[in-house]
Amino acid sequence: DEQLDLDDGRWEDIHVVTGALKLFLRELPEPLVPFSHFDKFIAAIKIQDLSLRGRCIRDLVLSLPPCHHDTMKVLFRHLCRVVEHKEENRMSVQSVAIVFGPTLLRPASEESNMAMHMVFQNQVVEHILNHYGYIF
């Protein structure tokens, strides 16, 4: 219910805006990639056959609930634009994936190997960024 004045100077710092976006996504009751899909995406990114991997990830994205799919489409379109300006902002595909991977995909419980999951979480985000046109 808070009213924000986006003309306030504190919003000029891109790190504040990005931090707010990441915080919003992290605090969702369920991540953008629902818990029910986490293991499926991790299994898909491990597929060695690149063509099969691509189809599997596209099908998984298409199988998301509409609100998750639509939000993901808009967010990744924006993140692709961020990557287009990597020379100025130093945010390559890999950098964006490292920043957003653990926020967008996370297991329901943190009992398993978090470090190993993080590698695959980042790879999923990187794959979606690299193949945005095919996936969406």
What does the model show?
With 136 residues, the chain is mainly alpha-helical. The protein has one domain: Rho GTPase activation protein (Phosphatidylinositol 3-kinase, Chain A, Orthogonal Bundle). The protein has helices at residues 14-26, 35-45, 50-62, 66-84, 86-89, 93-104, 114-130, 132-135.
Low-confidence stretches: none
Beta percentage is under 5%
Helicity, as a percent range = 55-70%
**Name of the CATH class:** Mainly Alpha
**Radius of gyration of CA atoms, rounded to a whole number:** 15 Å
The best one-word shape is globular
Q: CATH superfamily, please?
A: Rho GTPase activation protein
Number of H- or I-type helical stretches: 8
Which sequence of SSEs, written as H and E, runs from N to C? HHHHHHHH
Protein name: RHG27 protein
GO molecular function, one term: GTPase activator activity
InterPro entries: Rho-GAP, Rho_GTPase_activation_prot, RhoGAP_dom
Organism: Catharus fuscescens
Task: For this entry, give a set of tags.
mainly alpha; 8 helices; globular; Rho-GAP; RhoGAP_dom; GTPase activator activity
Compose a concise summary of this entry.
By secondary structure, the protein is mainly alpha-helical. The protein is built from eight helices and no strands.
